[in-house]
Amino acid sequence: MEFLPLRTLPAAPRQQSTSNPHSRHFHSFRHPLFIKHPAAITHIHFCPTKPHRYAVTSSTRVLIYAPKTGKVVKTITRFKDTARGGEFRKDGKLVVAGGDDGVVQVFDVNSRAILRAMKEHNQPVRVTHFSPHLPQILSASDDTTVKLWDLSTQACLSTFSSHTDYVRSAIFSASDPSLILSASYDSTIRLHDVRLPEDDANVITMRHGGAPVEDILAFPSGGVAVSVGGPILRVWDLAMAGKCVRALSNHQKTVTSVAFDGTKGRVLTGGLDNMVKVYDVEDWKVVHTMRYPAPVLSLAVSPDDTHIAAGMTDGTLSVRRRDPKASELGASSAQETAIKGGAYEYFADMEAIFGTGHIKAKGKDLGPVVGPADEFRVETRRQKRLRDFDKYLKSFKYSAALDAGLHKNVKPTTSFALIQELVHRDALRIALSGRDDVTLEPILNFLTKNVTDPRFGEMAAQVVGIIIDIYTPILGQSPILDEMLGKIQIGVERELSFQRELMKLRGALDITLSQAVLGRVEA
Fold it and tell me: β-strand 202-207 against 215-218: which pairing, if any?
């Protein structure tokens, strides 16, 4: 007859989780990385294109990190004063940043050379952005102005001067590059249309309620914006002339930053209360909260939704990472790879997608190449390896099987399944017999831990009874055996005492509930 490996006892049913899917998603970010910098981290930006490197602005530097390794791959230090707002261009080849010297600079990422320097601001430039569609740059400064620059000529195309205090955030509309949103410490959010004359460009003004506005965010549709300032997050309907449709106060202190997650279905806010709150954009309820060791100044999420980066006032950079699900990887591969012919160019192009193996042509290494997901692969059936206790059971070495099944790396459900199998074979007494103090001690230790477990208590008590029956002649002669059996007795007595107390409590609760029911009936 063919030997059947041991089957593990069914584990206790898991309690139904009360957490929502959003919370479970953010709990999957399980690889926190903490990197210390000498100064506060004022801005973080992920590159829109893969591999989604991220630029961290701190002190007089913009550091570019690799997401897989968490290591610095480039450092831009060409600043005369504190750097501000370092951001990638869409293709990841250029970085723009402002500074406390009032200069807006554009850098080549590979060479770190300064390609452009725009100097019309006369106070610190806090915000810089590349236009998502046009060769333009947006900047905002403490001089209360927002400027639009032509990247190719360095010329200032427009200056918006409607704010009366420091401008701390400015962004392009995702749906229309002609629309610009800006937010200021004058407690206003303003929508500008660059197609209009500068004096008439401010088409909508929204008031945040008296608190300085720290950051703003625009939805991809362009019809909704979010602003944060003080402890309040506000949601604005731009299609209704900037009507405030939500005002939420879930932070205890000032909210400093706001960002989308990778799906654009959730909004994250970071604040000086050391908290990051996650909102579901469907109902604007907080679905998850993350605590950080210091006040949060900057926040960003990678476009592929696998990294959450937060910068803090004490210079700590926290990067939380999750491994993408197989379904996400499959969807990504399906989008990036199409069925092509077996041409040489096809395999040469696979470098950007796959990462193992190399091909060469004319002496040149063309990079890593692997076949696509729809290739045929020869699968081999691997025979399941028997575990140690299964091998001993197969050869009828019951004592050795029991010792292997009680190893610390074996789960209790598996250990008791082994004991059950030994009982079924009438071999448990054989496995327990002929032992000395040293070989009995692991068994008694295991029983001490599990004799009060409701799943295994009855079976553990039977094993203890067999041990006492076998080793009664030497009880009182072995200090180790006496001590271990004494521990089991104490554990059982404590469990019985606890169960008696629970029965008393149950009786008291029954009386209380009965009186409550009678009171309702009489009423």
Answer: unpaired
